[in-house]
Each structure stands twice: as C-alpha cells, then as structure tokens.
Amino acid sequence: MMIRSKICGLQNPEDIQIAVNAGADALGFVFYAKSPRNVEMNVAKSLIRNVPGFVSTVALVVNEQTSVIDQILKQTQVNYLQFHGDESGEACRQFGVNYIKAIRVNDQTNFAAIQEEFYDAKLLLLDAYVPGIPGGTGQTFDWSLIGNLEKPWALAGGLTPENVKYAIDQVHPFAVDVSGGVEKSKGVKDPLKIKQFLQQVKAVSNYE
Length: 208
Description:
Strand order of the largest sheet: 1-2-3-4-5-6-7-8
Distance between the termini: 6 Å
CATH topology: TIM Barrel
C-alpha cells in the first residue's frame, strides 16, 4: 500500500522545493493568525503558484469567516480546504470544493457520527485532542482510540522522522501529516527532517 504524505505549515519556497523533491504528495498552508505557521494571503498566493502539477495544495483554516475562505480560494486556487475547527459538515461543503476535516481524537470521539456528518469529505485527518488548541500541538494521541473508519483517513499529531514508520506499521493510515515534527523551532522547518520524514514514509510504502 502506498502511504501518502503531507507536509504542513510551509512558509517559504525553499522548504516547498525540498518537500516536493523528497516526494511529498501534498503541501499545507496555514491561514490561522494564532499559529506560528500562519502565512499571509499574498505570500501564499506566490508560493502556491509555483507548486508543480500533481502535488496537491491545502489551505488550513480554523472556524474562519466564509468571506475570508472565499478570498483564500479565489486568490490561491488551492486544491483542498482543511477545516481544523468546530465546523459542521454543512459549513465545510458550502464552498463546493474538495475538503479535509480534522478530528481531534479523545475517548468521546464518535467515529460513526463523524463519518455520517462529513460523508463527502475527501479525507478525515485524525489529530491529538488538546483543550483550546486546534492543532499543531506536536503531541501524539492514543491510537487505540481510532474507531472503524470506512473513509480514507490521515494520521497526524506528534509524528516525526523517528516514529512515523512505527506509526504506519501500527495503524495503517491512508496518509500521514506532519508539521512540528519536521521543524528546528516553532514554525521554522528543518530541511533535513523533511527529507528524513519522507524517506521513512517511502520506505514503508516500498516495503508493503
């Protein structure tokens, strides 16, 4: 099985080129002012314009206003929206574009209800639940809490070059998503870690 990969929180062309050359399937851009990985609209537009074909681009938003999301779509022409807040299924699908819904997993997570509400999501992204923090925590969660999922799903939360291969072996996700695990410091990517992370993902895919 080929495991897909997404590098999230990108902010400059150098890191994008490294991720693309190392084989990332998707690149994530954060539109959330409270995040150290936030990218301004005009910067994102320039960055995304130079992403080559067959590499997907994803705009991450958190409980954002409809008008702002409309502008993101118009200005950047991203391939996917990734909703990382408390958005309903109706709120996610109103834009008429492919979307990913992030789910912060804890022992109260109802996977059956989630799949019903977000029936048209292209992907569910399972992340760590930390009160008051919508994502990018760098923390793993108890993978045994992952329920039966018929939809494709991605594993996020605390993944690094050191543990991603083990994580894939344990839970067999469709894809993996990383941000903090390939950084030197909060919001600053480490080129070597990006390469190492993607090498580990490709190694597992080749093995399988």
